Amino acid sequence: MENNVVLKKAKEGLRIGLWAFLIDFGFGVLLSLIINGFFIGQINQWVNGSLSEQITFSFTRFIRVTSFIMNISVFNGGGTIQNGSEFHIGALIFALIPIIAFWLADRRENKLKTFGYIEFVVYICSAVVFSLLLTGYSLITKGEILGLGYQFGSLKNFVMTFIIVICIQFFISLNYNKEFSAGFKSARILLRILLGLGIVIGLVGTILLLGRYTENILLIIAAVIALLPNLAVYIMFTLMGISVEFGEQLTKLMEMAQIDISFTMLSLPLRITFIVLYFLLLLVLVLRIKKEHYLRELVWFALSFSFVSFILAYCTTINLGFVKNLLDVQFGINYSVAFGVPFASILLTGLLVMFARILKKELR
Questions:
Q1: Is 261 within 8 Å of 283 (Cβ atoms)?
Q2: Which of 259, 262, 229 lies closest to 244 in space, CA to CA?
Q3: Which pLDDT tens digit goes with each residue over 204-213?
Q4: Positions in the chain whose pLDDT score sits under 70
Q5: Which residues have a Cβ under 8 Å from the Cβ of 149 and sit 6 or more positions away?
Q6: Phi, psi dihedrals of residue 23, rounded to the nearest 5°
Q7: Cα–Cα distance between 93 and 318 in angstroms, integer?
């Protein structure tokens, strides 16, 4: 009986993966049409200079731009570039494409109020199908766009697409009030609070900063929509005492422009305040975990939140190489720090609470 249920769920996953890919492809085609129809000339001048040849519509470039959009929407790397590292565009705004695709493809499954390993079979199968189809399409469309070579079809990108798609489906399920353990619930609350603070701070900061340079409301709104998701994540890490790391050239340029989103540039009292508030928040959440299965739920809390932090760090890393062969544009959060700091801080807070309870009991 259970084997039949698993097989049924596997077939459902295959269907969802296929539909999600087709919807994602549709969004890619639409955006590619807009880019190739209205913006490709400006992009060509920005990439190759104002003296570059005028370009016309090309079907080959059209399908490659579609592939490019689909890959950066799941944060795949595009191969080695001039600075010796991997080309990567970690713009969270593009994540809306696969999120909407899987939400539309999996609406029936998302409405279930329970979550177990049987339901997880759906996520695994759909992720495998989506990853295989995207990898195959990427291999077919590899080449150059405006003279810039890229390669998205790789084993690493297949694995990362699989992981990202699993995370996207899990993220969607979190918003349907499914029944999770106390550890997962604590991780969800912590993530929502920190990202909520990041959104508020980022929104106010972006508006104030852009207001110094332009009074164009539409430009400010467009910049907020494009930048706010990444800024919210960077500020979330800042609240945990983790700094955004920039390339040397970009750091100097930001200092000249008086732009600061790096934790290390903040004043010492403010840095200490952020860390204290973060640990107070952890303390409140840890105290909410019941004594029954306390250690197990504490570990789940630490692992789940730290894993999400790692994924967010990966998804917001940007490395464009040398723009116009002048400025090396690369910045993001160190992956090991993004996982290690929250994991250690949650475990430390939880163990201190446990020892305090033991000590209180012994002193009675």
A1: no
A2: 262
A3: 888 887 887 7
A4: 1-3, 47-54, 79-85, 107-117, 147, 176-179, 248-266, 321-328
A5: 79, 143
A6: -65, -45
A7: 13
